[in-house]
Amino acid sequence: MEKRARFTSSWLPYALVAPQILITILFFFWPAVQALYQSVLLQDAFGGYSEFVWFDNFSALFGDPTYLAAFGTTAIFSVLVAVGGMVLSLILAVFADRVVKGAAIYKTFLIWPYAVSPVVVGVLWMFLLSPSLGLLSHVLAWLGINWNYMINGNQAMTLIVIAAIWKQISYNFLFFLAGLQSIPKSLIEAAAIDGAGPVKRFFTIIFPMISPTTFFLMVVNIVYAFFDTFAIVEATTHGGPGKDTEILVYKVFSDGFKGGDLGSAAAQSVVLMVIVILLTVVQFKYVEKKVQYA
Q1: Coil, strand or helix: which one is 238?
Q2: Which residues contact 127 (CB under 8 A, 6 or more apart)?
C-alpha cells in the first residue's frame, strides 16, 4: 500500500521550502537579473556614470577577436576537463570496486582532493610544475622535455587542465563508484559464465547500467569547466601566456575588475550563462535519449 506524507496545515509545505526559495532568489535569480540590466549599460569603473546603450556591449563583444578566441580556448578546455576527468574517474572507480583488501584506504585517498579549495589546487600544481622549482618539472627535464608553462601556451593549457581534472576527480569517482556498486553482481557473473570477457562485460552490461550516472556527471562537469575553474586559472596562469588560457569566465573577471569595463563584463556573463543553458538543454533533449533508466 502506497504511503504519502500529508500536511495538516496548508501553509506548512510552503514554509518548509521557503528558505531554499529565498536562497535561490537572492543568490541565483537576482544576480542574473542584475547582469542582464548591467549588460545594456555603459558604466565607468566607479559606478558614478551610466548610460543606456541597448545592445552595443554585445555588438562590441562579437567584433572583438580576443573574445572570439576565448570561445575556442574555452571549448578545448571544457572538453578536455569534462571528458578527461570522467574517463579517469571511471577507470579509478572500476579498479576501486574490485579491491578487496584495503579498499577503504584507497577510496579515502581518492576522495581527499575534493576537500581542497580550487585556489589551493592551482597553487599546488603550479609549484609541482614550476619551471625552476617544480618536482615534476625536473622529472620532465630528465626525460628530455623542456617544460616552461610561463612562455609555452600549450603547456600552460596542460597545467590548468591537469589541475581542474584533479580537483573534480573525487566528485566523479564517488558517483561512479556508487553506480558500479549498485549493479547486481549476478548479471556480471552470468555474463562471465556465458563467455563474455572483461571488456565486453563492461561495454554491454556495466556501462549501460551506469548511463544515468554518466549523463548526470556530464552535465555537472561541463558546468564545472565553464564556471568553477576560474580560481585555478587565476592562481596559475592568469590567462597567459598572452591570452592562451583566458577562458570565458576568466575574461569576465579580467575585463570587469582589471579593465574596469563593467558593461562588457556583464554582457560576457550573460552570453556565458546562455551558452551553459543551451548546452544543458541540448544534453537533456538529445543525449538523455541514449540513457537507460531501467
Answers
A1: coil
A2: 133, 134
Cell of 134: 617544480
* Separation of CA 216 from chain center: 12
Q: Look up residue 204 and give its DSSP letter.
A: I
In terms of Cβ atoms closer than 10 Å to its own Cβ (0-12, 13-18, 19+), residue 199 is: exposed
Residue 196: strand, helix, or coil: coil
pLDDT digits (tens, 9 = 90+) for 95-116: 888 766 666 777 777 788 888 8
How far is the C-alpha of 247 from the C-alpha of 31, rounded, in Å?
A: 21
Digit-coded pLDDT (tens) for 268-286:
989 988 888 888 888 877 7
3-state secondary structure at position 150: coil
DSSP secondary-structure letter at 188?
H
How distant is the alpha carbon of residue 156 from its chain centre?
18
The closest alpha carbon to 157, from 228, 69, 81, belongs to 81
Length of the chain counted residue by residue: 294
Predicted model pTM: 0.86
Phi, psi of 122 (to 5 degrees): -60, -45
Distance CA 292, CA 210 (A): 8
Answer yes or no: are the C-beta atoms of 156 and 150 closer than 8 Å.
yes
The string of pLDDT tens digits covering residues 184-194 is 888 888 888 88
How much is the average pLDDT of 265-270?
Answer: 89
Cβ–Cβ under 8 Å, residues 246 and 181: no
